[in-house]
Amino acid sequence: MDIKAETKAGWRTPASMVLVQLIITGNILLSKVSIGGGMVILVLLAYASLFGAAFILPLALINERGKWREMGWHATGWIFLNAFIGYALPMSLYYYGLLDTTPSYVVIFLNLIPLATFILSVLFRMETLRIWSAFRSLKVAGVLFSVGGTMLISLYKGKALHLWNPILKIHPKEQTPEGASNQLRGTIFLLGSSFTFACWYLLQSKVLKVYPYKYWSSMATCLVGGLQTAIIGIILNTDKKAWKLGWDFDLVTILYSGALATAGKYCLNSWVVAKRGPTYPPMFNPLFVVFTILLASIFIGDEITVGGLLGTTMVLVGLYTYLWAKSKEVRDE
């Protein structure tokens, strides 16, 4: 019986991780179309987070029944900070970066989050940098290689490869001075988002010590993050029409983000971590780079350039080098 269960987990775990990468890719493309069509970013974030909380609530009630009573004021304060650092601020920066750039550009910065986490953990002395260790040297090399790939993508485009006609046509104006300025602004937003997410990962250990119930913590974080973005959105945008939901593409994006990109992704990741450990899911992150570049080119006309391909390859190689060295280091310790 155990052998059969292990065999099933053997193909289900990688299949689940591939599905997670497809979910992330779909969320990026849907969000780009919605905000490119005029949907207010903070409205999208607020509704998506609140829907995400609604989808996670039944899981919390089933798996962690009654544990909400242990959420005191101390835990509530940490969850409030967790929602701001882990959702409201980084996701706002991420979507504003997406608005100014393209999906295939954005995913490169999402892949920098593990590396940014490593850099911050060294700066805050949460991890010791001993470069004379072989695995730690490889981790540093992976960081440098990925950063170099990101710089190559930002500074060099090269020849555009026109492989097919897009189904939808959403082309950023990158050739104009205004488009170039927007891409620089978007790059700054995306870098800020990556490092804010990195801070959030470092914060997680403290939150879980204070309130160690994953489903209730995630539900509360989504709820508070939705309220935070809603309040900021109402202050910045007083137009009531922006908050009205209709039976349109924006509603599809919101429901997809809440049901699949929040609740579904969380459940799949949690199951795989329980089966294979915490270092297993990040190994599949580079897949959504490939998925996003291909699908963004097919559906919304993102350009595939020689510089982009070279830089993406460098980022992927650097990321895999870092994750492999990290997993070996954890096993040795």
Concise summary:
This protein has 11 helices and 2 strands.
* Rg estimate, integer Å: 20 Å
Strand order of the largest sheet: 1-2
Number of helices: 11
Total DSSP E strands: 2
Largest sheet: 2 strands, antiparallel
Please tell me the overall pLDDT. 79
User: What is the assembly state of the chains in this entry?
Assistant: single chain
Rough shape?
globular
Classify the beta-strand content into a percent band. under 5%
Structural class determined from secondary elements: mainly alpha
H/E element sequence: HHHHHHEHHHHEH
Contiguous runs where pLDDT drops below 50 for at least 5 residues: 171-177
Distance between the termini: 32 Å
Helix content: over 70%
Describe the 3D structure:
It is a single chain. The protein is mostly helical and 333 residues long. The chain has helices at residues 2-36, 41-63, 73-100, 103-110, 113-123, 134-155, 177-210, 214-236, 249-276, 285-300, 306-332, and strands at residues 160-161, 304-305. Strands 1-2 form a two-stranded antiparallel ribbon. Helix 2 crosses helix 9, helix 3 packs across helix 8 and helix 6 (134-155) runs antiparallel to helix 11 (306-332). The longest helix is centred in the N-terminal third of the chain and has 35 residues, at 2-36.
